[in-house]
Specification:
By secondary structure, this protein is mainly α. Helix content is 38%, strand content 7%. The strands form 2 sheets. The chain has a 3-stranded parallel sheet. It has a two-stranded antiparallel ribbon with strand order 1-2.
Length: 296
């Protein structure tokens, strides 16, 4: 019923404006052309079988899709408060943008948050504050039996492999880690010369494929491991026991997609596909203790 009323109203509007344009000033033709186009759109909407909203509400149904399209902008600019957004609200994003541009990142005169709300955590003044540690806020990696413990920063660069990034990306992150005094996790793709370019602290990671510490057959190579683990920049070693992000298929590197830059850090053999082996002597759970004792 609504569909018929909309089309009927458009037909009446077309007849009226065309009649006025013929009998009156030429400016009516502009309005007549607009109503003719709307009538064509309405007829198309009424006969198409794909969208029930457009079929039942010709022309008017397009307003729904338009509002749906601009919904994020309406939410961001008119509805969302400065502290509502997830995972980072507007206040946090503004702070990041300001600091990234080299501007002052402080926000004075209190807070917009309800700090008295139950569950809210904040720092308060102390009558007898402790001395500021010389190395800043750090976390000790290594127990009492560790001969070379490492005091890691609270924030570091997480595992991102060279193969999934690029030379320039790894160089940029390594330089930032060196300047900021925090650690750079190599990811399971191997320890490359680019990870060592700026002498940043490294957390060397290898996973079930042993990339960077594998022999020609894809098995764990103790000699390669000993050589790289004794590098001065390697402060900690991360052993990835399984492939969690993309199990079984994305991690495979088929022959046609192999690149010249991959084999050195990962120890690929040209002409053969490379992938984390499905079963090795170190496969968990039984082999985890064996691998731990071997790398230790």
């Amino acid at each position: 019923m609504v569909r018929i009323l909309i089309l009927a109203a458009l037909i009446v509007a077309v007849i009226a404006t065309v009649t006025a344009a013929i009998l009156g000033p030429w400016g009516w033709w502009i309005l007549a052309v607009i109503f003719i186009l709307l009538l064509i759109v309405g007829i198309r909407d009424a006969v198409q079988p794909r969208h029930s909203i457009l079929r039942n509400f010709p022309v008017l149904g397009h307003a729904r899709y338009f509002l749906e399209e601009i919904r994020p902008e309406i939410q961001q600019y008119f509805i969302e408060r400065n502290w509502d957004g997830k995972p980072f609200n507007r206040d946090q994003r503004s702070l990041i943008y300001s600091r990234a541009k080299g501007y002052k990142g402080d926000k004075a005169f209190g807070t917009e948050l309800n700090v008295n709300e139950p569950g809210y955590e904040y720092f308060i003044q102390s009558i007898a504050p402790k001395a500021v540690p010389d190395l800043g806020h750090r976390v000790r990696l290594g127990g009492p039996d560790c001969t070379q413990p490492y005091d890691a920063s609270l924030l570091n660069i997480s595992a991102m492999s060279f193969g999934s990034l690029s030379k320039n990306a790894v160089l940029a992150m390594n330089k930032g880690a060196a300047q900021g005094g925090f650690a750079h996790d190599t990811g399971e793709g191997g320890l490359t010369k680019y990870h060592r370019a700026y002498n940043a602290d490294l957390m060397w990671e290898f996973g079930s494929g042993y990339f960077g510490t594998r022999d020609k057959d894809g098995q764990f190579d103790p000699e390669k491991f000993r050589e790289k683990s004794n590098l001065e920049q390697v402060k900690a070693i991360t052993v990835k026991l399984s492939q969690g992000a993309s199990p079984g298929w994305v991690v495979c590197c088929p022959v046609p997609r192999s690149r010249k830059k991959l084999p050195r850090p990962a120890a690929f053999r040209w002409g053969r596909p490379a992938s984390p082996r499905p079963a090795t002597p170190h496969s968990p759970p039984a082999g985890t203790d064996s691998l731990h004792r071997q790398v230790a």
